Amino acid sequence: xxxxxxxxxxxxxxxxxxxxxxxxxxxxxxxxxxxxxRLSGLGIxxxxxxxxxxxxxxxxxxxxxxxxxxxxxxxxxxxxxxxWACERSLIPADPAASLLTPKxxxxxxxxxxxxxxxxxxxxxxxxxSDGAGEPSPxxxxxxxxxxxxxxxxxATGGRVAELVGMDVNDVDRAQRLV
Length: 178
Hints:
Blueprint: H1 4-18, H2 22-41, H3 52-62, H4 68-87, H5 114-129, H6 137-156, H7 160-164
Helix pairs in contact: 1-2, 2-4, 5-6
Protein backbone atom coordinates (compact mmCIF):
# COMPACT_ATOMS: atom_id res chain seq x y z
CA UNK A 1 0.00 0.00 0.00
CA UNK A 2 1.07 3.57 -0.68
CA UNK A 3 2.98 4.99 2.32
CA UNK A 4 2.58 1.91 4.53
CA UNK A 5 6.11 2.08 5.94
CA UNK A 6 5.84 5.85 6.50
CA UNK A 7 2.46 5.48 8.21
CA UNK A 8 3.88 2.92 10.66
CA UNK A 9 6.75 5.27 11.49
CA UNK A 10 4.34 8.20 11.92
CA UNK A 11 2.12 6.26 14.31
CA UNK A 12 5.20 5.24 16.34
CA UNK A 13 6.17 8.92 16.43
CA UNK A 14 2.68 9.86 17.67
CA UNK A 15 2.82 7.21 20.36
CA UNK A 16 6.34 8.04 21.53
CA UNK A 17 6.39 11.83 21.21
CA UNK A 18 2.92 13.32 21.12
CA UNK A 19 1.38 11.56 24.11
CA UNK A 20 -1.73 10.54 22.20
CA UNK A 21 -3.97 7.82 23.56
CA UNK A 22 -3.97 4.38 21.97
CA UNK A 23 -7.51 5.00 20.74
CA UNK A 24 -6.54 8.28 19.05
CA UNK A 25 -3.50 6.68 17.44
CA UNK A 26 -5.66 3.84 16.15
CA UNK A 27 -8.20 6.34 14.74
CA UNK A 28 -5.43 8.39 13.10
CA UNK A 29 -3.99 5.21 11.62
CA UNK A 30 -7.37 4.21 10.21
CA UNK A 31 -7.94 7.71 8.80
CA UNK A 32 -4.56 8.04 7.11
CA UNK A 33 -4.70 4.45 5.89
CA UNK A 34 -8.12 5.09 4.28
CA UNK A 35 -6.75 8.22 2.64
CA UNK A 36 -3.67 6.46 1.30
CA UNK A 37 -5.76 3.54 0.01
CA ARG A 38 -8.02 5.97 -1.87
CA LEU A 39 -5.03 7.82 -3.31
CA SER A 40 -3.46 4.53 -4.34
CA GLY A 41 -6.74 3.65 -6.07
CA LEU A 42 -6.46 6.90 -8.01
CA GLY A 43 -3.12 5.71 -9.39
CA ILE A 44 -0.79 7.62 -7.07
CA UNK A 45 2.33 5.54 -6.43
CA UNK A 46 4.40 7.79 -4.13
CA UNK A 47 3.71 10.27 -1.33
CA UNK A 48 5.53 12.98 -3.28
CA UNK A 49 2.87 12.70 -6.03
CA UNK A 50 0.00 13.63 -3.67
CA UNK A 51 -1.54 17.05 -4.23
CA UNK A 52 -4.16 19.12 -2.44
CA UNK A 53 -6.78 18.23 -5.06
CA UNK A 54 -6.19 14.52 -4.40
CA UNK A 55 -6.77 15.06 -0.68
CA UNK A 56 -9.89 17.13 -1.32
CA UNK A 57 -11.17 14.36 -3.59
CA UNK A 58 -10.70 11.84 -0.79
CA UNK A 59 -12.55 14.07 1.68
CA UNK A 60 -15.39 14.76 -0.75
CA UNK A 61 -15.87 11.04 -1.41
CA UNK A 62 -16.21 10.32 2.31
CA UNK A 63 -18.12 13.42 3.37
CA UNK A 64 -21.71 12.14 3.00
CA UNK A 65 -21.07 9.11 5.22
CA UNK A 66 -19.25 10.86 8.09
CA UNK A 67 -20.20 13.32 10.79
CA UNK A 68 -18.46 16.70 10.78
CA UNK A 69 -16.51 15.73 13.90
CA UNK A 70 -15.22 12.60 12.16
CA UNK A 71 -14.28 14.61 9.09
CA UNK A 72 -12.43 17.10 11.29
CA UNK A 73 -10.48 14.28 12.94
CA UNK A 74 -9.67 12.80 9.52
CA UNK A 75 -8.32 16.14 8.30
CA UNK A 76 -6.22 16.56 11.45
CA UNK A 77 -4.82 13.04 11.06
CA UNK A 78 -3.91 13.49 7.39
CA UNK A 79 -2.48 16.97 7.95
CA UNK A 80 -0.35 15.64 10.80
CA UNK A 81 0.90 12.74 8.70
CA UNK A 82 1.93 14.86 5.71
CA UNK A 83 3.47 17.57 7.93
CA TRP A 84 5.51 14.86 9.68
CA ALA A 85 6.59 13.41 6.30
CA CYS A 86 7.60 16.86 5.04
CA GLU A 87 9.59 17.67 8.23
CA ARG A 88 11.57 14.47 7.67
CA SER A 89 12.16 15.28 4.00
CA LEU A 90 10.19 12.23 2.88
CA ILE A 91 8.25 14.54 0.56
CA PRO A 92 9.37 17.87 -0.94
CA ALA A 93 6.25 19.83 0.11
CA ASP A 94 3.26 19.33 2.40
CA PRO A 95 0.15 18.88 0.22
CA ALA A 96 -2.16 18.92 3.26
CA ALA A 97 -0.94 22.23 4.71
CA SER A 98 -3.86 24.17 3.23
CA LEU A 99 -6.57 21.61 4.05
CA LEU A 100 -9.17 23.31 6.18
CA THR A 101 -10.73 21.55 9.14
CA PRO A 102 -14.53 21.45 8.93
CA LYS A 103 -16.24 23.51 11.60
CA UNK A 104 -17.69 21.28 14.28
CA UNK A 105 -20.84 22.52 15.92
CA UNK A 106 -20.40 22.50 19.67
CA UNK A 107 -23.60 21.36 21.30
CA UNK A 108 -23.92 22.31 24.94
CA UNK A 109 -24.71 19.45 27.27
CA UNK A 110 -28.33 19.07 28.34
CA UNK A 111 -29.25 20.97 31.47
CA UNK A 112 -31.37 19.49 34.23
CA UNK A 113 -34.71 21.11 34.85
CA UNK A 114 -35.21 22.38 38.38
CA UNK A 115 -37.59 19.49 39.12
CA UNK A 116 -35.04 16.93 37.82
CA UNK A 117 -32.30 18.52 39.92
CA UNK A 118 -34.54 18.55 42.99
CA UNK A 119 -35.45 14.88 42.49
CA UNK A 120 -31.80 13.93 42.09
CA UNK A 121 -30.76 15.83 45.23
CA UNK A 122 -33.72 14.47 47.19
CA UNK A 123 -32.81 10.93 46.16
CA UNK A 124 -29.19 11.42 47.23
CA UNK A 125 -30.25 13.02 50.53
CA UNK A 126 -32.84 10.28 51.07
CA UNK A 127 -30.21 7.55 50.76
CA UNK A 128 -27.98 9.42 53.18
CA SER A 129 -30.70 9.77 55.82
CA ASP A 130 -32.82 6.66 55.19
CA GLY A 131 -32.78 4.41 58.23
CA ALA A 132 -34.37 1.42 56.48
CA GLY A 133 -32.67 -1.59 58.00
CA GLU A 134 -29.92 0.39 59.79
CA PRO A 135 -27.16 0.70 57.22
CA SER A 136 -23.62 -0.17 58.21
CA PRO A 137 -21.27 2.70 58.97
CA UNK A 138 -19.62 2.10 55.58
CA UNK A 139 -22.97 2.26 53.72
CA UNK A 140 -23.90 5.40 55.64
CA UNK A 141 -20.56 7.03 54.76
CA UNK A 142 -21.07 6.17 51.08
CA UNK A 143 -24.56 7.65 51.11
CA UNK A 144 -23.35 10.88 52.71
CA UNK A 145 -20.46 11.01 50.22
CA UNK A 146 -22.83 10.49 47.28
CA UNK A 147 -25.15 13.24 48.51
CA UNK A 148 -22.17 15.59 48.88
CA UNK A 149 -21.00 14.77 45.34
CA UNK A 150 -24.42 15.47 43.84
CA UNK A 151 -24.77 18.73 45.76
CA UNK A 152 -21.23 19.85 44.91
CA UNK A 153 -21.67 19.19 41.19
CA UNK A 154 -25.06 20.86 41.08
CA ALA A 155 -24.08 23.88 43.18
CA THR A 156 -20.81 24.61 41.38
CA GLY A 157 -21.48 23.47 37.84
CA GLY A 158 -18.10 21.79 38.10
CA ARG A 159 -16.93 18.89 36.00
CA VAL A 160 -16.72 15.38 37.34
CA ALA A 161 -12.97 15.35 36.57
CA GLU A 162 -12.53 18.45 38.72
CA LEU A 163 -14.44 16.86 41.58
CA VAL A 164 -12.51 13.61 41.32
CA GLY A 165 -9.24 15.56 41.33
CA MET A 166 -10.09 17.38 44.56
CA ASP A 167 -8.16 16.60 47.69
CA VAL A 168 -9.00 17.18 51.36
CA ASN A 169 -6.40 19.98 51.36
CA ASP A 170 -8.47 21.77 48.70
CA VAL A 171 -11.19 22.46 51.28
CA ASP A 172 -10.83 25.70 53.25
CA ARG A 173 -13.24 25.22 56.13
CA ALA A 174 -12.60 28.68 57.60
CA GLN A 175 -13.50 30.41 54.33
CA ARG A 176 -16.09 27.75 53.40
CA LEU A 177 -14.42 27.39 49.98
CA VAL A 178 -13.19 24.58 47.82
